[in-house]
Amino acid sequence: MDNTLPGFSLRKSFGKSLLYSLPMILITFVFISGGRPDFSDPLSAIASLATFMLVNVLYFLMHYTGKTDRFRAVLFIIFALSLSFTLISNMVETRNSMSFSQADILECKIPFCHLVIPMMIIPAAFTKSIIFPGTILGSFAGIASMVVLWLVATLVLGRGFCSWGCFYGGWDDGFSRLRKKPLLKKINDIWKWMPFAVLLMVSLTAALSLVPTYCDWICPFKAVTEFEEVTSVESAVKAGVFISLFAGLVVVLPVMTRKRTQCSFLCPLGAINTLSNKITPFTVKIDKASCTECFKCVAACPLFALNQEGIKSGKVSVFCSKCGKCLDVCPNNAIHYGIKGVPSGTMKKFSRNLILFVSFLFMAVFASGSIIITVRGLLDLIF
Amino acid sequence: MKKIKIFAGIAWAFICLIIILALFPGLGSFSGSLAKLPFMKINPNYTGGEVEQSLIMDNCTLDIRRPVFDGLFREREKGFVQIDWRGNIPEEINDTIDYDSDGSNDFSVRINSKSSETQLQAFSDKVRDVGISTPTSYGWAVRVNVVKTNSEIR
Question: Which of A262, A300, A361, B134 could crosslink A102 through cysteines, CB 3.0-4.6 Å?
Fold first, then answer.
């Protein structure tokens, strides 16, 4: 059992950090190289090596410095940028455009993403079909593989998916870090319930119209992935909505508030992940014996998961995405990763090591494919 | 009770660790198994429905699909029928379609594949207008909006 005395540190020595990083090094090596490094294409080999180095250096630093969010965010943001790059380059390669045409819809060639999942459920139950023009087992963003990835991640990580697995979250996470201090400090945290309203609305409208209405009309990330070809007033209005929501909720508000406003106020999948936070064994706990109630964690939390009343009663809400930002700012390590059933303040190091391994492994393997493609693309531009 | 809770929590955490370790190597087979479930097929509103008639023409094949009226609980009154031309598409397409196979033509469609201009001539009350007319990777596709007749609704 760990102690709860002030001065307790999560930092590890160089050797110990390396030892803790070894399983990650071995597993990511197997996934990135396929177990057999291929040097026939030097640029691909360099891209794979750079990705391998990046993920493992970040994981090592998490152990060596005892900081979590600082290094998680680097990979998370790179993941978001590289995924958009991969998606756009794939579309430009196959269609010569970032927009998709009516023919792409008719031929079911639209890449599937996890944000469609909330709208699939009711129609799948009643019509025994998926209301999305994608491929079930496609090599690129197939529906079955994305559903499996999300299902497992949300079962294991709960809302941790939003900070360790979602390839869009890095956008507003990144913009929320641009200013050191927020311009807008007072935000009523009642807005954090908004995604449940969005979830209800898009689930019902999608079920009634058999159209994924969130993707069709709302999704801000259409602005950085793919969108419908602007050929009519309706498609122009849609493009306007996508760009406005991206500018407002992913860029401007995160910069002004230092919060992930799109994830907090809009994302319907975030609402489902919030519910699955009840299932995951991994959580964030508050050690009341060490907490001085400085409330630095409340100010730092990007998803409105912490408030002063919660800290006083030693409770973290279900909105927590286990990003680790509160852990990094806590001067006494009073707020810490924990396992459900294990009393707070105990087994801090064990819980952190286990949660970091599980969460980081998911992100590293999930992200590595698109990061390699992006690095390879950049190398192609240079050489 | 406290010890049981701790044991259960740690056991569940280790099961999750194993699940994550198995996820990526097993992704192909997990996805394959999921894809076999009965609801894992694309809705006909997107695929255009199954091909009901396939007519071989000079340079291309004309596929007439099942009319799609699919709704959440039951069929809707308004739907569409999709016609696909596959192969080498002539500059001018002009075909007459009997989509419900009742022996009488329902509409004729004329497409200029260069200008994408599409004209529809309806021979039946059920045929409304052209919903989509677009070149595709396999040739050309047209969706004609249709409605059900009173007897069909009943």
Answer: B134
Q: Residue A162: pLDDT above 70?
A: yes
- What residue in A sits closest to B139 (Cα-Cα)? A103
Our CA-based measurement puts residue A111 at a distance from the nearest CA of chain B, in whole angstroms, of 13
A 308-347 residues inside an 8 A Cβ radius of B: 339-343
Name every residue whose Cβ is closer than 8 Å to that of residue A175 and which is 6 or more positions away in sequence. Answer: A250, A251, A254, A255
Task: Tell me the shortest Cα–Cα distance from B62 to chain A, in angstroms.
Answer: 16
DSSP string, B21-70: HHHTTTHHHHHHHHHTSTT-SB-HHHH---EEEEEE-SSEEEEEEPPB--
Chain B residues whose beta carbon lies within 8 Å of the beta carbon of residue A339: 9-10, 13
Residue type, A81: L
**Residue B63: strand pairing partners:** B54, B84
User: Which residue has 């026939």 as its token pair?
Assistant: A40
Can you tell me the ipTM of this complex? 0.91
Give Cβ neighbours of residue A10 (< 8 Å, ≥ 6 apart): A66, A333, A348, A349, A352
Question: How are the residues of chain A apportioned to helix, strand and coil, as percentages rounded to the nearest 5?
Answer: 65, 5, 35
b/e A76-112 (16+ beta carbons within 10 angstroms → b): bbbbbbbbbbbbebbbeeebeebbbbbbbbbbbbbbb
Q: A93 vs chain B: nearest CA distance in angstroms?
A: 15
For a pLDDT cut of 70, what percent of chain A falls above it?
A: 98
- Write down the pLDDT at residue A99: 83
**Single-letter amino acid code for the residue at A139:** S
